[in-house]
Design a protein that fits this description.
Largest sheet: 20 strands, antiparallel
Number of domains: 1
CATH architecture: Beta Barrel
CATH superfamily: Outer membrane protein transport protein (OMPP1/FadL/TodX)
Radius of gyration: 21 Å
Low-confidence stretches: 1-16
Strand content: over 45%
CATH topology: Porin
Distance between the termini: 61 Å
Number of helices: 3
CATH class: Mainly Beta
Shape: globular
Helix content: under 10%
Number of strands: 20
């Protein structure tokens, strides 16, 4: 009896994990404003989680903080039902310190990677999976930098209904390797940067406790390889593009009894492309950036024909850049629509406002 209950509850936990956004990327309002096309840019305090090789662009110590206000709407059009929810999260905090005249830069960061928030009349989910990330970047030669960071996974989530509360504790370890080539440092400069970033595969351990029983699941997190480039037109305009391969199609949720289910309903990978641009308007008061970006948003979901559900996202951002600090804000809207067997037509939309602040010491 106990074993049957645990297996059924594991399946429930698996369904909850499938509803999460596993499009894990870096952080920051600036990068978000450029649609997340930042692997080939990576020249601010968020580089440690985008491409640690980009840390070598920091010539003075920096500290950054990022918050997000998230509003979501789910609509079941055939049923005439709609569900809305919103919340705020501290998304990212980092400190970076250059050494050896900026040739070697160290950093450490906190980032919320998986956000479990969900609220309805009968259920409330809070918390999520976070990482503590120490990193280092080193300029090998003027045109080539390399970087490394380690993701120490931690955090917990609570799932409550009218009867019980279930707690999930997360743990795991993964590594990130990055490289960046800056052709503007050639003898005959070309205003082009090319970056690559690889995240190693690992198993995210999920320790579950429902108040009566406790057990452990594992989520197979795949290798992720991202490629990015940025091109500077003149002094003030930068265009960027990324493509990231995420091999989720073969990933599984492995239960304590050895059974498993696919993490992705369609068993397709979550490969993503991102494009964006940034224009800097220089004034006597401050430098004012204007940013725009686009990305596809693949999900773990499948429609009634077992095809992967893929949405899209559009972002706009701006800010103020001063000598000692900068402030950035970005508005992102994303969503997808698909047909299901049980609920008919489903529309899911998310609006996110990201705030960033960076202090230069």
């Amino acid at each position: 009896m106990r074993k049957s209950f645990v297996i059924l509850f594991c399946i429930f936990i698996g369904v909850s994990l499938c509803a999460l956004d596993f499009n894990i990327t870096g952080a920051g309002a600036r990068a978000a404003g450029m649609g997340g096309a930042f692997i080939g840019v990576a020249d601010d305090a968020t580089a440690v989680v985008w491409n640690p090789a980009g840390l070598t662009y920091l010539q003075r110590p920096e500290a950054s903080i990022v918050g997000r206000s998230i509003s979501e709407t789910n609509e079941w059009t055939d049923e005439g039902e709609e569900e809305k929810q919103s919340h705020f999260i501290l998304n990212f905090v980092s400190v970076a310190y250059p050494l050896m005249g900026g040739k070697l830069v160290t950093a450490i960061a906190y980032q919320k990677q998986l956000d479990f928030y969900y609220l309805s009349e009968d259920e409330e989910y809070t918390g999520g999976a976070n990482t503590i990330t120490p990193g280092i970047g080193y300029q090998i030669i003027p045109i080539i930098s390399a970087g490394f960071s380690a993701n120490i996974w931690t955090g917990n989530a609570d799932m409550s209904d009218n009867y019980d509360t279930t707690t999930m504790d997360f743990s795991g370890f993964s590594m990130v390797f990055g490289a960046l080539a800056d052709l503007s440092n050639l003898e005959n400069p070309i205003p082009l940067k090319i970056g690559v970033c690889m995240k190693t595969p690992f198993n995210l351990q999920v320790d579950v406790d429902d108040g009566y029983y406790s057990w452990t699941n594992e989520v197979e997190m795949p290798m992720m390889i991202g490629y990015g480039t940025s091109f500077r037109l003149g002094e003030n305009l930068t265009l960027a593009a990324d493509y990231e391969i995420r091999k989720y199609g073969a990933s599984e949720i492995v239960y304590e009894d050895g059974s498993s289910v696919p993490l992705c309903d369609s068993e397709e990978d979550l490969n993503q492309f991102r494009v964006g641009g940034e224009y800097l308007a220089v004034t006597d008061f401050a430098v004012i950036p204007f940013r725009v970006g686009y990305q596809n948003v693949p999900t773990l979901l499948a429609d009634e024909g077992f095809n992967q559900v893929v949405g899209s996202g559009l972002s706009f951002g701006s800010g103020l850049i001063f000598e000692k600090f900068s402030l950035d804000i970005t508005y992102q809207m994303s969503g997808h629509e698909y047909e299901t067997y049980w609920w008919g037509n489903v529309k899911e939309n998310k609006n996110t406002i990201t705030f960033s602040g960076i202090i230069y010491f």
